[in-house]
Amino acid sequence: MRTILCAALMAAMSVTALAQSGTNSPYSMYGLGELTEQSSGFNRGMNGLGYGFREHDQINYLNPASYSAIDSLSFIFDAGLSLQLTNFNENGRKLNAKNADFEYVVAGFHAARHLGVAFGIIPFTNVGYNYANTQYVGGGASASSTTYTNTYAGNGGLHQVYFGAGWEPFKGFSIGANASYLWGSINKSVINSYSDANINTLSKYYNSTAASYKLNFGIQYTMQVSKKDALTLGGVYDIGHKLNADPECRVISRNTQTSVADTALYKIENGLELPSTYSVGMAWKHHSKWKIGADYSFQKWSSVKYPVYNVVNNVPQYTLQEGMFEDRHKATLGGEYCENVNSRNFLKRIRYRVGASYATSYLKINGQDGPKEFSVSAGFGIPIINGYNNRSILNISAQWVNREATGLIKENTFRINIGFIFNERWFAKWKVE
């Protein structure tokens, strides 16, 4: 059984490495793309809550210090996918888009006394959009009958494969770290065309390939407030750094009559960067029934420069510019209720979850703040009980996400998250009579 599980794990990881989680959001054309949910199935039922949570039967890679709580007899394997429907609304025009994505694969086990480890593959950013904008030359139909069309398209994103460990040096206090290899390509283009074939076109192609590391460090401290109540405080710090990527911009001017094209290539060495991130959270646990918590994270994007192509005094330039991003803030509230996790009654073992978040955007679009985000979720942790295993869990949650800003596209996304946790007792010592 162990051989089969390990083979399934590696196969799933390979699939994840080759497939990028999808998005259709035009906002993914900016910066590094759309930031993904850095959480597993049980977190998503609480809308991504987790910096203060310690779970013995689930992997909480939001805070690596939590790995020290993994059950000493178990090997935990967790894989998840999502299905989503997004409605885009701009000046009364509406469009729907569907996506189905394989989200993450993670695994973990108790390696030694007070030491837990975890590893897996999860997406970091997504880029995926394709739309066109057609206007009259000169700004209106009265100025000219000639139209021009700009077609915007992009794909790709960044992935991360990680290994982490959490250690509890003394009762109630844990530390941990995740070390990730971050890689991927981001491809974007703006293709220009005119209804009048006598006018030359100008198209731009952007490409960035990253291969770097990502490090974060976590801490948790649990206080036993009373016999039935415990409070856990958690914190995580992500290191900001360059991504070892050399973004390129290829500009093509084409004479549509002669099909002659002039190409100019611009490159910036080590031009992409991650911000430093500071996150804190708390979780209150009451008698193994109620778990409620709150999280706050701060990403310092305002200090990150980004490559931009423009023309200054008729001189083309592709340079790193400040002020392209703003600091991102996110706050989350949520909780979980389970009447009796060890009951023989199936219904009493179901875990009910709910959560809500508010986040600002890290993007600046045409000089204004990007769309703010409000989201809510609700879900279940359904126990899988049979004669062989009664520790595995099916996590199902529904999430609604609203993103909007004045004068920009409004997005409403309804998402179903499905995660399966296989929890097998690998390390038990069996007694033969």
Features of the shown structure:
mainly beta, two-stranded antiparallel ribbon, 433 residues, 2 helices
Question: In words, what does this structure look like?
Answer:
By secondary structure, the chain is mostly beta strands. It has two helices and 23 strands. The strands form four sheets. A 14-stranded antiparallel beta barrel has the order 2-3-4-5-6-7-8-13-14-17-18-21-22-23. A two-stranded antiparallel ribbon has the order 9-12. Strand 5 and strand 6 form a beta hairpin. The longest helix is centred in the N-terminal third of the chain and has 17 residues. The protein is elongated. The chain starts with a helix and ends in an 8-residue tail after the last strand. The N terminus is likely disordered.
Strand content: over 45%
Strand order of the largest sheet: 2-3-4-5-6-7-8-13-14-17-18-21-22-23
Oligomer status: single chain
Cα separation of the termini: 23 Å
Classify the helix fraction into a percent range: under 10%
Low-confidence stretches: 1-21
Mean pLDDT over the full residue set = 89
Query: Strand tally, please?
Result: 23
What Rg do the Cα atoms give?
Answer: 24 Å
SS summary, helix count: 2
3D shape:
elongated
Instruction: State the secondary-structure class.
Output: mainly beta
Q: Largest sheet, if any?
A: 14 strands, antiparallel, barrel
SSE succession: HEHEEEEEEEEEEEEEEEEEEEEEE
